[in-house]
Automatic annotation (TrEMBL):
InterPro entries per the UniProt record, alphabetical: Na/Ala_symport (IPR001463)
UniProt-listed NCBIfam families: agcS
Classification of source organism: Bacteria, Bacillati, Actinomycetota, Actinomycetes, Kitasatosporales
Gene Ontology molecular-function annotations: amino acid:sodium symporter activity
Annotated source species: Streptomyces subrutilus
The keyword Transport is annotated on this UniProt entry: yes
Entry keywords, A to Z: Cell membrane, Membrane, Symport, Transmembrane, Transmembrane helix, Transport
Family: Belongs to the alanine or glycine:cation symporter (AGCS) (TC 2.A.25) family.
Protein name per the record: D-alanine glycine permease
Stored Gene3D superfamilies: Amino acid/polyamine transporter I
Membrane topology (UniProt): Multi-pass membrane protein
Membrane-spanning intervals of the chain: 40-61, 179-199, 219-242, 254-276, 288-306, 337-361, 391-414, 435-453, 459-478
KW Ribonucleoprotein (keyword) present: no
Principal cellular location given in the protein's record: membrane
Amino acid sequence: MSLDSITTSVDEAVSGFFEPIAKWLGDIVFYSVPVGGTQLPLIVAWLVVAGLVFSGWFGLVQIRKFRLAVNVVRGKYDEKGSTGEVNHFQALTAAVSGTVGLGNIAGVAVAVSIGGPGATFWMIICGLLGMATKFVEVTLGVKYREVHADGTVSGGPMHYLPKGLAERFGARGKSLGKVLAVLASAMILFFGLFGGNLFQVNQSYAQLVSVTGGESGMMGSSAGALFFGILIAAIVGVVLLGGIRSIASVTSRLVPAMAGIYIAACLVVILVNASAVPSAISSIIEGAFNPQGVAGGVLGALIVGFKRAAFSNEAGLGSAPIAHSAVKTKHPASEGLVALLEPFIDTVVICTMTALTIVIANPASWAEARAGESIGGVTITSDAFGTVLPWFPYILTIAVMLFAISTVLTWGYYCMKAWTHLFGRSRTSELTFKVFYTLFAVAGSLLTLQTLIDMADAVLFMLAVINIIGLYLLAPVVKRELNSFLDFVRRRDAGLDTEADEDEDQEPVKTTV
């Protein structure tokens, strides 16, 4: 029996078993209601409303404290002796690597195809709102993180939900928090294995095959797929063994590189078509408010834009606080401010650059997708670049590889923290997970398991329901932490001795686990 027949049989068997479950779960999580002639998924509304609430609650912190956030990333407010494993910049790039990926390339193309150019405007708005949500959840992640005896750190919703709810609501809050923590861990683990690992490897392999001669090319065979899977698994395994320090060291180089390559290519297309820029911007703004637009007019453009942005930047899903919790700081809100830059980079910058490139280049495949003649996706983006750079598919392949590897690494770290919360934190437990996760990377180039990936998406967004309820209940804690950090900043800027005045309660709880 050939490798192809084995993998095909596994795909079919798994899909046949899980397809009814995935459909049932998807119908619940992504339940939509008709609004203005189009469908609004309630989970997207849930995420957007959270962004609105937290933007108001914290006085548009994402705008007022943007400059301060940049200064924190630069290390201006670093403190000696801070507990943690990585600096602010490394924590940011590790988290960004988990959100910046194929959704920024293919997802945006789908958005401007269904919602028209106006969807770009609403993606930007949703990204700006998501900055406030990200600030809240990451501040809580650092506030309630655990520092283990060996100096490593664990954080995320599986920690701040039980600890924070217990602190505010006593025994009942503690019991509820423990249940929510187990559910959150299970959801993060499931998505990470299939969406954060298998899917990323599978799509990067597909792009590699497309530029090396297709199915009949050098990488199109089962042997080529196996080689690619083993190569990616080896890279992931080596880095993952080094923990968050190793992951942060790699992503702090990968993220700027992949973002730089991609944005540079976008700028080339935009500059070559500089005369078309004013018209493109005008079409984006007009399309955002034009009631005669596609997919239900203004509401259609708004919903599509919000949906793509919410799915891309993961604000409110509880995943990013896991990476940010490892930061070296005595003030949780300092990293919350750093984290608000994440949706800005992911959605406001990279997604917008993709959309602007497509609108300006106006490739034939985009017109076909808008007319309903094709689905579109990464092909539209590639074609847009191809109008100026015929050789761009090769550059796109490099970008996709960097996106995929960094995403797999970051989700590997997220999954390991979820795994150890469920099955215990020991050397054997961690090693078991790392081997298991690495083998999944090999399977990514051999299997598709699309049904499980669809189910993983639904599971991850179920986490948003649990997580955001916790964020609402714990928002007063975040307000206190923000005021504490702003007071520290004022004293530091005034040249006062801030080291001697640090309160002990700023330090995370240390455990002996």
